Amino acid sequence: MGKMTRGQFLRGNWRGSPVAPSPDAIVRISQVCLANNAVSCRSCEELCDEDAIRFRPVAGGPAVPVIIEDSCTGCGDCLGVCPVDAIDLQERQSG
C-alpha cells in the first residue's frame, strides 16, 4: 500500500483518494460553501495536507476560504468532506 494522506486516514478511505491526483487540476469552492454563507465550517482546511485551503478572517462573521493555488496538488482529498458539496476540481488556467 502506498502513502496514505491525512484526509484518507480520517475518512477511513484505506484504498486511496476517490479522485486521481492531477497536477493540472485545482480546487474551487463555490458560493454555496457554508463559510461563504456565514456558517462556521473548516472541514476542507482540516483535511488539506498541503495547506492549500486556508481561511481569511472577516469582520463580523466566520472566516472565508481562500485557495493557495501554488500549494494545491489537485489530490481531491477535500472533495468528500464538504457537507454541501461546494468543492470541485477544475482545470488550471495556464498563463
Polypeptide structure, described:
By secondary structure, the chain is α+β, with helices and mostly antiparallel strands. It has one domain: Alpha-Beta Plaits (2-Layer Sandwich), CATH 3.30.70. Helix content is 12%, strand content 24%. The chain contains 2 helices and 4 strands; from the N terminus they run αβαβββ. The longest helix has 6 residues, at 6-11. The mean pLDDT is 83.
> How much of the sequence is in beta strands?
15-25%
**Alpha carbon gyration radius:** 13 Å
Strand order of the largest sheet: 1-4
How many structurally independent domains? 1
The largest sheet is: 2 strands, antiparallel
The CATH level-2 architecture is identified as: 2-Layer Sandwich
Short summary:
The chain has 2 helices and 4 strands.
Strand and helix layout:
Layout lengths: L5 H6 L13 E5 L13 H5 L5 E6 L2 E7 L19 E5 L4
Antiparallel strand pairs: 1-4, 2-3
Features:
alpha+beta; two-stranded antiparallel sheet; 95 residues; two-stranded antiparallel ribbon
